[in-house]
Design a protein that fits this description.
5-stranded antiparallel β-sheet; 1364 residues; disordered C terminus; glycosyltransferase; 5-stranded mixed β-sheet; Cyanovirin-N_sf; transmembrane; dolichyl-diphosphooligosaccharide--protein glycotransferase
């Protein structure tokens, strides 16, 4: 018996070690996979809501607990303000500040931003651990075994990487869910643990505490409460292994009391309909317990009667208003999307219903493995197993209703996968307790079970690897993008949003009010620190409706509102449907829900952009459309003041701002001295909407609004005529009527676009049924014929039949395309031999599955061509896919396409890509190809050769490679049709116009490289501009410039074609000097791109460069590299790179001894090819310069002159302008360094001895600081204030003497000829630290630091003779 106990104990230790090891590995992996965003972008707060969370955390850290919970934020929701304490779940902020202060005690380098960025990763690891513990608890018995350890490990590993959980817990995603999901997992585990047996119910208190923390962190706490309540209800009906009454009562009391301490929660758990069921269950359990304690004679009263009384009481209380109704977001779970009745809720994309694609996107292969875990859980029927089954079905139901709630499915999907793994482990090694157990437990059979389980695991390895790779790619490529910062196709950072917010912070008044759609309010307040109109809290529907009304109204109407609310308007104008034009339909709908008549229909159908890119009438007139650069702004009302580098953000200033409204400060406090003081709208704004106001502006606004409403009412679709042909179109088309034999509908709905006009002749329909397909009236197709060939096309194609004399062609009248349209298509089945089958590819009948001959040469064409084979030296492919989806026969001779060139399918034609033939061969040699890159030595016109590389996959036939001044370029890339005219066509190729975007694949820049560039051409055309290529970047070029200011001359210059260049030159020469100078200056101001050429033509032949060119407009950058061979170096300067698209050139003589990486300030001159070149380099900071120089001790110029000469130079510096009382202590030290260098005799000796280097470093410091102590300059006086006056001069003298001795010693060779041990190096390092403290430490420590130098230096001096 003792041996059995010992074995059991050993196994328990083994299984616990296995479980804990797996949980630790999962936690580490969960942490690592969440750091991709921080690794790629740095510690940046993501998205929108996290920026408010971070701002609130900063406020808590700075102002403390009391002020945080009495914080009424008047910088948001202007002019109303926001009571933060009653509208925030503060658990995450409190946790962040606690962790920050804790980490500060360990490592002071942790700042609050880094803590907030890393917190999601930390809590993601915690969630994974508790998910594993929950899975293990649900499948185990009284003791831990192998299968339950496996369940916990697998569940934790799945939870660590599943995208559904990653989506809310990546590094930088400082959002409530990242913390609350961990609390939920913790609460669920402790709840199930409390039900393990009769004596474990006290653990429910921990579940209640975890639930309270979740309630303090996220509004989703309601789900956790109802989930535990549902589980307790099920167990009440079917029985529990634990003490259910004690566990649930303890959990409910602890959790509810804790949740009620949160201001935003307060009495909600006892008054909300959403939490009524758990409260009712708590009451029922108390009644049952009381009933059990009643004497026998009182138990005659049926328990059902007591329950009926309770139901009646609840029924009476609900209408009384004690219980609050369901919120709009909860209501959205039980009604169809966009039908909640609240257009604000319906506008949020995350509130869309779930789909199969969403499950695969966020769960991956867990969609397959998690249902397998239901079987073993149902077989076990433990309390924990019942909980996981219920959790799975509940989360699946809610995820179906709202895509955002797929986040809840991460936990059941992971734990059920763990349960499935435990079943496999049980099958392998567990004893089978059934009638056939004796047979299955025999050693041979048991060995067979283990082998089968091992084979199953081996077969699952590829699937597991694929799932883990899927999660890794999702984490890095999809979920780890901060959104506020993105990366371009070339890997460069696109930082437009932060650039715009920084501009607001630097260029607007501190009390400036910024209007923007509510999505961006948090970022504006968090980064720009400016007052916002609305943000993501969305607590006031009417206020957001006012904002939506302003942005979606015509510009003149909008200005009358904006001038009372804002000083600036910020819009996202990036295009692609995700900018503010794409969102503006929601703005109009929300506005229309409060201001009737803003749209002529409830859903604002006529407000939007048509599928061809043209705006509707209402959209074109709206302010948001013009702010986004798609129309001209009224210069009387708005002035554009900022456009980001990539034109994704625009900021306009509101003109004629109402100063009365701006200075309005209404505070409606609920009690005298209270912190709760909401603001109010200004009288000027309220008058606009007051029908009784008689102000001029109010009357104008209401008249314009009424006129617009009346005009829009005329455009409202009329009701459908009676007696129309039947069909589903009647539900989505309006204004339908019969005109002769034609059915015409004026407004047929088209998803993502305003309704469009459509007509159809019903007699042409084979069936008396008409449908609206993507805004087009189409006949209901007749059923497919019985003799058509099999294939997947039959599911999405209708009206299919065989046609032709011999019925050789398959024709389908209605094949669905990806856009939703139904189009006709045909195919000859004889071209699709078995085993291939016909399918529908975006509305086109195609053949899939025809194998290619193995003898065919490799190439990209094999991916889109089928049935390829070799025939007479040519590749013949009977089925090559075209761009429109059709398939056609194509062939190409292999004689004209030799390796390394490869065949490609270009729109159904086989072409040879990457061929090395071309004119470049005449002037390029030593060509080598690596992959798709060709590298050659190409000759310039000067005879020099340059190494050049080109991606030959970008130079397809009929284009050819050329040598352009030593650069491989592709010439002859065809352009598309209907391109806008402009100078760009001379240097850009491969240009295509897609809607309003012009994209050129090959634009030549100044370095001879061909780069891809794109731009929006709508704004160019509207402002009489033409596209041009500026150094590889497409931009607008102004056609005409009004450079003169005198009548006749101005008229002539406005039309350059009015006179020839010679006549214009004569006219200019005839002007007086002052007028001509004004004309030239004005022209250059309007055409700044001409300025470099003008200066280059004048300097130095006609004049000299002014001195201001070296002293003004200096730039700052960092030295990148210097080639000692040709003397060419480069400086990284983002400011100049944005203008010239290249780094700044610098010669090695200008760099001198400055090391790579030094930050320098420099003057800019232009080279002969108009490139920036740096002169007069100066280190930007003394302290940085000294630190960099100390790293190069082997190349220092030694100051070996006497202290007298050093002091003399310092005194000279003190008398100059560069030395004044405003200079910092570190800059004073820098002057000492400069003085030391002035008296240096350059001696670059080889100093391999580290001890000598350290001594020299000490000497530099002492020789510099000693004279400064003797001099006592004004800038150093504050730092010397704590030092007694009588000690300063002796201290300076000793320091100077000591520094001189140290500098002289290496020159005399006394140390350089001896081996100095590490002891001396260590002592001298201490001396260096002490000397550094003399300059950089607090003033009160100056004397102590100086004494440290003397003691350490003296010890080093004495130790030298001992150890050498």
């Amino acid at each position: 018996m003792r041996e059995m106990v010992c074995i059991a104990s050993t196994l328990q230790v083994l299984w616990w070690s296995l479980l804990l090891g797996l949980l630790l590995e999962a936690a580490l992996r969960a942490y690592e996979i969440r750091l991709w965003a921080i690794k790629d972008y740095g510690a940046i707060i993501h998205e929108f809501d996290p920026w408010f969370n971070y701002r609130a955390t900063e406020y808590l850290a700075e102002h403390g607990w009391k002020k945080f919970f009495t914080w009424f934020d008047h910088q948001s929701w202007y002019p109303l303000g926001r009571p933060v304490a009653t509208t925030i779940y503060p658990g995450m902020q409190i946790t962040a500040v606690f962790l920050w202060r804790l980490l500060q005690e360990v490592d002071s380098s942790w700042d609050l931003n880094h803590v907030c960025c890393y917190m999601p990763a930390w809590f993601g690891a915690v969630s994974s651990v508790f998910a594993g513990l929950l899975a293990s608890e649900s499948v185990r018995g009284e003791r831990l075994d192998f299968s339950s350890a496996v369940a916990g490990g697998v569940a934790a590993r799945a939870m660590a990487v599943v995208p559904a959980h990653l989506s809310r817990s990546v590094g930088g995603g400082f959002d409530n869910e990242s913390v609350a999901i961990s609390a939920m997992c913790c609460s669920f585990f402790f709840w199930c643990r409390a039900l393990r047996n009769e004596s474990s119910w006290p653990i429910a208190a921990l579940a209640g505490l975890a639930y309270s923390y979740m309630a303090a962190s996220w509004g989703g706490y309601i789900f956790a409460l109802n989930m535990i309540g549902l589980h307790a209800g099920i167990l009440t009906l079917f029985g529990s292994a634990g003490n259910l009454y004690a566990a649930y009562s303890l959990f409910f009391v602890v959790g509810t009391v804790g949740a009620m301490q949160v201001p935003v929660v307060s009495w909600t758990p006892l008054r909300s309909m959403e939490q009524l069921a758990p409260l009712a269950l708590f009451g029922v359990l108390q009644l049952v317990q009381v009933y059990k304690l009643l004497p026998k004679h009182l138990k005659q009263l049926p328990l059902v009667a007591l329950g009926a009384v309770g139901v009646v009481l609840v029924g009476l209380l609900i209408p009384s208003g004690i219980f609050s109704p369901f919120s709009a977001r909860v209501a959205a779970l039980f009604v169809k999307h966009t039908k909640t009745g609240n257009p604000l809720v319906d506008s949020v994309a995350e509130h869309q219903p779930g789909s199969a694609d969403a499950y695969w996107n966020y769960l991956g292969k867990l969609c397959l493995t998690s249902p397998m875990g239901l079987v073993p859980l149902l077989l076990r029927r433990s309390d924990g197993a019942v909980f996981l089954v219920a959790l799975f079905w509940v989360t699946y139901f809610f995820a179906q209703k709202m895509r955002r709630l797929i986040i809840f499915m991460a936990l059941p999907a992971s734990t059920l996968t763990g349960a499935a793994a435990s079943f496999l482990a049980d099958f392998a090694i567990a004893n089978v307790g059934t009638e056939i157990g004796a047979t299955l437990n025999r050693p041979p059979v048991r060995l067979l079970r283990i082998l089968l389980a091992a084979l199953a695991c081996y077969g699952l390895i590829p699937q597991i690897v694929e799932f883990l790779d899927f999660c890794e790619q999702k984490a890095r490529r999809t979920l780890s993008h901060p959104q506020i910062v993105t990366k371009g196709k070339d890997g460069s950072l696109i930082d437009d949003y932060r650039q715009a917010y920084t501009w607001l912070k630097d260029n607007t008044a501190e009390d400036a009010r910024v209007m923007a759609w509510w999505d961006y309010g948090y970022q504006i307040a968090g980064i720009a620190n400016r007052t916002t109109i609305a943000d993501g809290n969305t607590w006031n529907h009417e206020h957001i409706a006012l904002l939506g009304l302003c942005l979606s109204s015509p510009s003149s109407e909008a200005h009358k509102i904006a001038r009372h609310l804002a000083d600036y308007v910020l819009v996202w104008a990036g295009g692609g449907g995700k900018d503010d034009v794409g969102k503006s339909k929601h703005m109009a709908r929300i506005a229309n829900s409060v201001y009737p008549g803003h749209c002529n229909e409830e859903d604002c159908d006529l407000y939007g952009v048509f599928s061809d890119g043209k705006p509707s009438k209402m959209m074109e007139a709206s302010l948001i459309y013009r702010l986004c650069g798609r129309g001209a702004l009224d210069p009387r009302h708005f002035r554009e003041v900022f456009v980001s580098r990539h034109r994704r953000v625009r900021i306009a200033e509101v003109l004629q701002v109402s100063e009365e409204s701006r200075s309005w400060r209404q505070r409606n406090c609920d009690a005298p001295g209270s912190w709760y003081c909401p603001g109010g709208y200004s009288p000027g704004l309220l008058e606009l909407f007051n029908p009784n106001s008689t102000g001029e502006e109010a009357l104008e606004y209401r008249e314009a609004y009424a006129a617009r409403v009346q005009e829009q009412w005329k455009e409202k679709p009329r009701p459908n005529q009676e007696g129309l042909p039947p069909g589903s179109y009647l539900d989505s088309c309006r204004g339908c009527s019969m005109s002769g034999k034609t059915l015409t509908c004026t407004h047929c709905r088209l998803p993502g676009s305003p309704s469009i006009h459509s007509s159809l002749e019903p007699e042409s329909c084979p069936l008396p049924q008409i449908n609206n397909i993507q805004g087009r009236l189409q006949c209901e197709p007749k059923p497919n014929a019985h003799n058509i060939p099999p294939g997947g096309y039959q599911q999405s194609c209708k009206g299919c039949e065989m046609k032709g004399n011999g019925e050789e062609t398959l024709f389908c009248s209605h094949c669905s395309s990806a856009s939703g349209n139904q189009v006709p298509s045909s195919f000859e089945p004889k071209n699709c031999p078995k085993p291939a089958k016909l399918d529908n590819d975006n509305g086109k009948l195609v053949c899939n599955g025809v194998p290619n001959d193995a003898a065919c040469p490799d190439g990209p064409y094999l991916k889109s061509c089928q049935g390829c084979h070799l025939s007479s030296g040519s590749v013949v492919c009977p089925l090559c896919r075209r761009a429109d989806g059709r398939q056609m026969e194509a062939s190409h001779s292999m004689e004209t396409c030799t390796r390394p060139a490869r065949l490609e399918n270009q729109d159904g034609r086989l072409v040879c890509s990457g061929a090395l033939d071309g004119p470049y061969k005449k002037s390029c040699s030593q060509c080598q190809q690596t992959g798709d890159f060709l590298t050659c030595q190409c000759a310039q016109s000067t005879g020099k050769f340059l190494e050049s590389s080109y991606d030959i996959s970008r130079c397809r036939s009929p284009a050819e490679l050329h040598n352009l001044e030593g650069r491989l370029t592709c010439q002859g890339v065809p352009n598309g049709r209907r391109l806008p005219q402009g100078p760009y066509l001379e240097t850009c190729q491969g240009c295509h116009l897609m809607k309003e975007s012009l994209t050129c694949s090959h634009c030549l820049n100044d370095e001879g490289l061909q780069v891809e560039s794109s731009m929006e051409v709508a704004s160019c055309v509207s402002q009489q501009l033409k596209p041009e290529n500026f150094n590889g970047v497409l931009r607008c070029l102004r056609l005409s410039a009004e450079v003169g200011r005198r009548g006749a001359w101005r008229g002539e210059l406005r039309s350059p074609g009015a006179m020839d260049p010679q006549a214009m030159l004569q006219a200019l020469a005839a002007l007086d000097d002052q007028t001509l100078l004004a004309v030239i200056t004005g022209t250059l101001q309007k055409r700044p791109e001409l300025a470099p050429g003008v200066v280059n033509g004048a300097v130095p032949d006609l004049t000299y460069a002014p001195a201001d060119s070296l002293t003004k407009r200096r730039a700052t950058g960092r030295i990148l590299q210097v080639n000692s061979g040709n003397g060419v170096g480069f400086i990284d300067c983002p400011e100049l790179k944005a203008v010239f698209q290249t780094d700044v050139y610098v010669h090695k003589n200008q760099v001198g001894a400055l090391p790579i990486g030094t930050e320098v300030n420099f003057a800019i001159l232009l080279s002969k090819d108009m490139k920036p070149q740096a002169f007069d380099l100066q280190p930007t900071g003394a302290s940085q310069f000294m630190r960099l120089e100390l790293r190069r001790l082997d190349d220092l110029d030694l100051c070996w002159r006497t202290p007298g000469r050093i002091l003399e130079q310092v005194l000279e510096a003190a008398e100059s302008d560069e030395f004044n009382a405003a200079v910092s202590a570190s800059d004073v030290s820098f002057l000492g360094w400069k003085a030391c260098f002035k008296v240096t005799q350059t001696q670059k000796e080889s100093m391999a001895d580290d001890g000598a280097s350290a001594v020299v470093a000490d000497g530099y410091w002492c020789a510099t600081l000693g004279p400064l102590l003797l001099l006592k300059p004004p800038a150093l006086s504050p730092h010397l204030a704590p030092v007694p006056e009588k000690l300063i001069r002796p201290l300076g003298a000793v320091t100077t003497l000591w520094g001189t001795l140290l500098l002289n010693e290496p020159l005399k060779g006394q140390l350089g000829q001896k081996r100095v041990t590490s002891l001396v190096c260590g002592i001298n390092s201490v001396a260096s630290v002490g000397l550094a403290a003399l300059t950089f430490m607090a003033p009160q420590r100056t004397l102590l630091a100086a004494l440290t130098v003397q003691v350490a230096g003296f010890a080093a001096w004495q130790a030298r003779s001992v150890v050498c």
